[in-house]
Amino acid sequence: MRDPAVHLANLDLNLLVSLRELLRERNVTRAASRIGISQPAASAALSRLRRHFDDELLSRHAGGYVLTPLAVALADQTEAVCAAAERLFGTGHRFDPRTSTRGFTLLLADYTVAVLGPALSAAMAERAPGADLRLRLVRESFTADIGRTIRLIDGMIAPPAARFDQPEFRSVPLFSDRWVCVVDRSNPAATGPLTLDRLAAMPWVVPFAPDRGMSGASPLSGQVARLGLEPETRIRVESYLAVPYLVAGTDRVALVQERLADQVADRLGLAVLECPGEPGPIRERLWWHADLDADPAHRWLRDLVVALAAEL
């Protein structure tokens, strides 16, 4: 069996950067511009990548290119490996956000993007205009092997969970929130107050729930169990942001983070009601791997996120 280290030594690791930009842009000319090479050089890199993977990666479709199934599978891996390499070779160097072209990757829920994203986006544009920020949305596949995932990203924003109780994990508190109930304002339940019996009889919209029961990886599952409810789930969705839209204009109910409910309730015609029982608080934290403690770029990003969260 070939030694993996020898195999790695025989690879042109510049192809990693080419692969990342080709998968991002889905266009050879734009990828070449992003990398700073000629279009023929980018085409040559694509040809080498196609031979290596024995796959077209980019296939022509309706006047443009689309990713092949293998390329789709490679996209997240490529982003993670490139981000890890940037962190590795950036460690120990002085970091100047004003001139850096460093890429940062955060794993978070779409709800957190709605709450913290605008301030983070504006701060990055002002303070680190050349840096790239990649926000990866939480999915079950990410949280299943979080110990491996967190090594390949700059951080994760999530409430505490048993699977994060690992000696190499570090974390710092960011902001708090609480669960509220939302219903359409035309729903008789909108006049409140809600009771647990009434909630149990209503149809629900539930984020991140599999076909059988609540998902153990979803913070919402613990809240529903805490209230002693077995909701009649009518709609399951892999998103927190989508939930209020799927309640609006229906007889459904959902538990929603209050900060999110406040953003959309008036626009969607929703009533925001106190949840009966004692749903636990939401305490969002920034998590990272201990290997990043010595990385000045990561410390800068961490301090920025913490400062922005404090302003909430």
List the defining traits of the structure above.
D-Maltodextrin-Binding Protein, domain 2, 12 strands, 5-stranded mixed beta sheet, 13 helices, about 45% helix, alpha/beta, 3 domains, Arc Repressor Mutant, subunit A, about 300 residues, 3-stranded antiparallel beta sheet
SSE inventory with pairings:
Blueprint: H1 4-9, H2 14-25, H3 28-35, H4 39-53, E1 58-61, E2 64-67, H5 69-90, E3 103-108, H6 110-127, E4 132-137, H7 140-144, H8 146-149, E5 155-158, E6 169-177, E7 179-184, H9 196-201, E8 203-207, H10 219-226, E9 232-237, H11 242-247, E10 253-257, H12 258-268, E11 270-273, E12 282-289, H13 296-310
Parallel strand pairs: 3-4, 3-5, 8-9
Antiparallel strand pairs: 1-2, 5-12, 6-12, 7-10, 7-11
Helix pairs in contact: 2-3, 2-4, 2-5, 3-4, 6-13
Structure description:
The chain has 312 residues and is an alpha/beta fold. The protein folds into three domains: 1-90, Winged helix-like DNA-binding domain superfamily/Winged helix DNA-binding domain (Arc Repressor Mutant, subunit A, Orthogonal Bundle); 98-177 and 283-312, Periplasmic binding protein-like II (D-Maltodextrin-Binding Protein, domain 2), CATH 3.40.190.10; 179-280, D-Maltodextrin-Binding Protein, domain 2, CATH 3.40.190. The protein has 13 helices and twelve strands. It has helices spanning 4-9, 14-25, 28-35, 39-53, 69-90, 110-127, 140-144, 146-149, 196-201, 219-226, 242-247, 258-268, 296-310; strands at 58-61, 64-67, 103-108, 132-137, 155-158, 169-177, 179-184, 203-207, 232-237, 253-257, 270-273, 282-289. A five-stranded mixed β-sheet has the order 4-3-5-12-6, sandwiched between helices. The chain is globular, with a radius of gyration of 23 Å. The relative contact order is 0.13. This is LysR substrate-binding domain-containing protein. Keywords: DNA-binding, Transcription, Transcription regulation. Residues 11-68 form the HTH lysR-type domain. It holds the Pfam family HTH_1. It comes from Pseudonocardia nematodicida.
